[in-house]
Specification:
This protein is mainly alpha-helical. The protein has a two-stranded antiparallel sheet. It has a two-stranded antiparallel sheet with strand order 3-4. The protein is flat. The chain has helices at about 15-45, 75-85, 105-115, and strands at about 60, 65, 90-95, 100. It is built from 3 helices and 4 strands; from the N terminus they run H-E-E-H-E-E-H. Strand 3 (about 90-95) and strand 4 (about 100) form a beta hairpin. The chain folds into 2 domains: about 15-50; about 65-115, no CATH class. The relative contact order is 0.04.
Length: about 120
Amino acid sequence: MSHPTRQEPDRPNLPRVVAIGVVTLIVFGLGVLSSWLTMHLELEAVAPNGIAIPSALGRSQIGMVDQKLFAEQPEARRIAARKRRQLESWGWVDRSRGRIHVPIEVAMQRIAKGERP
């Protein structure tokens, strides 16, 4: 006659689990310390007197580059108004080919109905 197989009770090896956790935390801490030290040393090599704020920061033009925000320029408002009028009106795109533009609301309604251009 055979004996029934018994399952062993689940008992984790607690000292081993704790040791693995502690070693993992130590390795992680050493990695963080190493990264911080490397970054600090590189920063000292690049900027020994600290990081200086550029004097040109905040100016609207630096060298040849115009730094103005597009939305603040008068031309931007004219372009946006022209594009808005085109989105809200009917008109020709290419008269010779018979291509037109339609108001965006009409176009969205037609697409929602399943029509295709």
